[in-house]
Amino acid sequence: MSPTSNxxxxxxxxxxxxxxxxxxxxxxxxxxxxxxxxxxxxxxLDARIHVAVEPVSTRSGVTISGIVVKSPQxxxxxWEYGYRSQEADAGIRVTHGHEQRISKNPFIxxxxxxxxxxxxxxxxxxxxxxxxxxxxADQAYYSNPGAPRTPTSPGRFLDFNVQLRDAHKTGLGxxxxxxxxxxxxxxxxxxxxxxxxxxxxxxxxxxxxxxxASHSYAQGKVGSGFDIASAxxxxxxxxxxxxxxxxxxxxxxxxxxxxxxxxxxxxxxxxTQIQKAAIKMPQxxxxxxxxxxxxxxxxxxxxxxxxxxxxxxxEAEQIWQDLQAGNEALAAELTRxxxxxxxxxxxxxxxxxxGEIINNNRKLIRRMGLxxxxxxxxxxxxxxxxxxxxxDGVIGxxxxxxxxxxxxxxxxxxxxxxxxxxxxxxxxxxVENDAADGSKxxxxxxxxxxxxMVGVKxxxxxxxxxxxxxS
Length: 471
Ligand SMILES: Nc1ncnc2c1ncn2[C@@H]1O[C@H](COP(=O)(O)OP(=O)(O)OP(=O)(O)O)[C@@H](O)[C@H]1O
Ligand SMILES: C[C@@](O)(CCOP(=O)(O)O)CC(=O)O
Known about the structure:
Pfam families: GHMP_kinases_C, GHMP_kinases_N. Pathway: Isoprenoid biosynthesis; isopentenyl diphosphate biosynthesis via mevalonate pathway; isopentenyl diphosphate from (R)-mevalonate: step 2/3. It catalyses: (R)-5-phosphomevalonate + ATP = (R)-5-diphosphomevalonate + ADP. Keywords: ATP-binding, Kinase, Lipid biosynthesis, Lipid metabolism, Nucleotide-binding, Steroid biosynthesis, Steroid metabolism, Sterol biosynthesis, Sterol metabolism, Transferase. Its EC number is 2.7.4.2. About 35% of the residues lie in helices and about 20% in strands. With about 475 residues, the protein is of the alpha+beta class. It folds into two domains: about 15-275 and about 455-465, 2-Layer Sandwich (Ribosomal Protein S5, domain 2); about 280-450, GHMP kinase, C-terminal domain (Alpha-Beta Plaits, 2-Layer Sandwich). The strands form two sheets. Strands 1, 2, 3, 4, 5, 6, 7, 8, 13 and 14 form a ten-stranded mixed beta sheet that branches. The chain has a four-stranded antiparallel beta sheet with strand order 10-11-9-12. Helix 3 crosses helix 6 (about 255-265) and helix 7 (about 300-310) crosses helix 9. It binds adenosine-5'-triphosphate and (3R)-3-hydroxy-3-methyl-5-(phosphonooxy)pentanoic acid.
């Protein structure tokens, strides 16, 4: 059902709004999920990016509207935008503030253009008021050490005291969580509930489709969109949208962009499939993310794997099908354990099948990597995963997403002593960096996060008290 567009444009003053979205980890389905024939098993993680929007009191007589966006945990992270409606149904054009000295932020700028354009199609006669927007991110997204802003009463959001370009990402999908929170916060702020309600299924679908469209444009249309899906819906089994949906959309600023964008995100053509019920974390288990203090270039790995698949159809098809079966088996076993009678089975034998499925999937991932000559589970990561998998309480682990040297994700028993033992064992872990290509993994650390089933949610403004709009 589409929202009705005849709601009154004047439904009271704009009130401050805040929204947050979770990080992601693709536990199964890397590369496969780029193709609609296959699915990806994605878990949300409890590191969040928050976006808060507030009205700005404009002095009487001031006619220029503006939106100021700040990411105050980073140095010089402030972007000022003007905006105006364009002829020919081309949507909203965003301009930069005069004294803009700092680098552009394509994710923020695109999310703003898409969100304001959609709002403009719903409320064509209403002036878009000025606002002030703050972005606040949890520590786990970056490996830079943060410091409390007010040491006497340390809050949730730390001061990173570096420029954004010097932030070291940990690969948790910061741009997807940012774009989704930003879009949700801007829509919730400017639109009355009758037109956009984050608590409704329709609201979530519109947010998902709009955030996919703008994130994909800002990113250069490379990803499957699993990161946006988990930002909106939390942990889920994800089947991507047909790429033609976005390739047939006019570019922002071109004739017909606004109404085609609205029709696409509200209409029935959008064919993503999200199964939330297919993903569960059994009670007594949890995910642990390990950062290996090194990084890989996802786009070039994707290019190489897909090129190999295109010229080795038969061999690739077999691996893809076997991996899909293995990924489905993993989802099914997690669900079985989550719903099984807690009294049945006991001890670590109850997770034996889960461990076996994970190890079989890893064999297939290594085959994919060897065949395509892409280090998806390189020897250093195999060694690390084998080492961790042999520790008491660890069921198994994989290289998430595109793999490489970014991170590993472990499935472990949710017990303090297991985490303590894992930490101690990793602090003694000796990395054997003997890869022929010279790639190295650094010190292995545990990120203080775990799985999160909840996707987008509204938040209390009081969370940001120490990061006032003036910060
Ligand atoms: N706190 C923040 N404030 C403003 N912009 C941010 C913030 N965090 C991330 N970004 C934007 O997102 C970009 C990083 O997105 P990118 O897609 O490269 O990484 P990622 O989504 O974290 O990585 P991956 O998909 O590999 O997990 C930054 O260059 C910046 O533009
Ligand atoms: C390789 C791919 O399937 C997963 C990439 O995941 P990550 O960015 O490495 O977490 C690409 C995608 O689905 O967007």
